[in-house]
């Protein structure tokens, strides 16, 4: 073989190797998720939620067997949480397949995984969060030098409080002109308020109602007053993207169960309250008084609409709150295809993804 020909073959081989290496490198760094084939109904569905009134759809879906009826042979395995960041860890660690979760942590799960790990598939609750304080605190300025609790760092209420403080020119800290923020379990927050060790808390229902009716707090701010028409997504339903791709029929069944639970609750308010209270007693060891239950229920609106149009603002709120430096991207976060299929089958209007279903 002539030397020139050998050099030509070697050059082609070298170029081919470089092209192959570059292709492999691009594949390794490609941020697009690998599409997983539909594997039919799942053997198990691991579902997370909170023992809160704001998670009424989950509590009712479990207690009244709306979920199990629709899931059929799929075993429902449930897990309770105190706040969203713990659920995010479980979702990212794949120990949860789906979760009823606050809007803030839902966005964080999407952002932390570069838009890969989870998809917003439905709403659950609008409203149901308040800033409650002790007597003598009548406005933002009165919080200087005071201590206010939220359920967990960077959870939905934590972000809401920090954003509101920022808008009112207040900073977080231990100084005389600052507001100290503690992140504490809801039940412990109630005890601390009763003991006079904190001055207020931004909490979801029923805990805000319990501080008012059981511990003598007053409502300084109902979060509904900060949103158009008083609507904001307190609780939504997210699913791991991989699970959604592998088991769309299972996710569709879960959504049918949630819709059934929601519709039943809206048509049977008194019975729905009782079911939720019974579930809270079973999960926490203590039922709510009727006054607390009524007050909590009046704060919320159950809806499968995730109010997707609010999520860009919720993402921007994290910057205002000082939780992140750049607003998390939410394009591509929503996949409401199965929800709208379920709604269409039930002769109900579709819900709008507000552009969040496209990158």
TrEMBL record:
Annotated signal sequence range: 1-27
Localization terms from the record: Cell inner membrane; Periplasm
Claim: ATP-binding is one of the keywords in the record: no
Superkingdom as given in the UniProt entry: Bacteria
One GO molecular-function entry: ATPase-coupled transmembrane transporter activity
Sorted UniProt keywords: Cell inner membrane, Cell membrane, Membrane, Signal, Transport
One GO CC annotation: periplasmic space
Keyword match Cell inner membrane: yes
Main location group: membrane
Matching InterPro entries: ABC_SsuA_sub-bd, NrtA/CpmA_ABC-bd_dom
Family designation: Belongs to the bacterial solute-binding protein SsuA/TauA family.
PANTHER family: ALIPHATIC SULFONATES-BINDING PROTEIN-RELATED, TAURINE-BINDING PERIPLASMIC PROTEIN
Protein name: Aliphatic sulfonates family ABC transporter periplasmic ligand-binding protein
Organism: Kutzneria albida DSM 43870
